[in-house]
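Morning. Coffee machine broken again, so started the prediction first thing and wrote up yesterday's gels while waiting. Chain of 128 residues, entered below exactly as on the submission form.
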Amino acid sequence: MTEQELRRQAIDRFKNGESPKTIYKDLGRTKQWFFKWLKRYQSGDPQWFKSRSTVPHRKPKQLQEEDRRRIITIREQLQRQSFSQIGVSAIKWELHKAGAPIPSDRTINRVLKQEGLIKKNTLHSQGS
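Came back before lunch.
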């Protein structure tokens, strides 16, 4: 029996007067499972028994491509300057001077890593 058939069977049994506890125990499911599908059934949605995607519809905190490019551009400009700091603090300072939104340190580091712009410090990784 498929999961969808099991859901329909549970609700049909409930509509025929069986107690929820009897139904979910008999089907080897949890109380939460049963009431989730009862609530979906009661919503009136004709497709209530089908699984829904859990992927968010929106990603409000996702970095905009324009902001991503700005971080990369600033890093590349800083690298071309002699004796310039190129880390997160320097990038944040440049974003601040430009009046641009300033993402978290973690976000800036993630962008730099994804673009291959973080280089391992070779001074400390060599044997003494």
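Helices lie at 3-15, 20-26, 31-42, 65-80, 88-98, 105-114, 122-125. Going to sketch it on the whiteboard this afternoon.
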